[in-house]
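Exam prep: given the inputs below (a chain plus zinc ion), describe the expected output before reading on.
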Amino acid sequence: MNASQRWTLAILEMDDYTCQFCGNVNHLDAAHIEPKSRRPDLALDPANGITLCRSCHSYFHANPYAFELFIYSFRQHNTSYFTRAPVAEPVS
Ligand SMILES: [Zn+2]
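Solution:
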C-alpha cells in the first residue's frame, strides 16, 4: 500500500465507511478538502480528508461552492473532527 492508499483507508476508517454528506455506505471515496492542486502539502494529511460517496464526490467537484458550504457547516457541527489523531503507520 502506498502513502496515498494509506491516506484513503485512514479517512474511510475514521468516517466509519460512510459518506459524510448523504450517509451512503457504498462506492466511497476519500475526498480532499483542500484540493491537491492548491495545497499539495496537505495531500496526505488525515485532517484534510472526508469520506464521500462517488456521487456526492462528483457533485461537489462540479459545484465547489456547495462543497465549501458543506465543509463550513460540517466544521460547525463536528468540532473535534478536524483535530483528530494523525494516521498511525501500519505494521507491514
Ligand atoms: Zn454521498
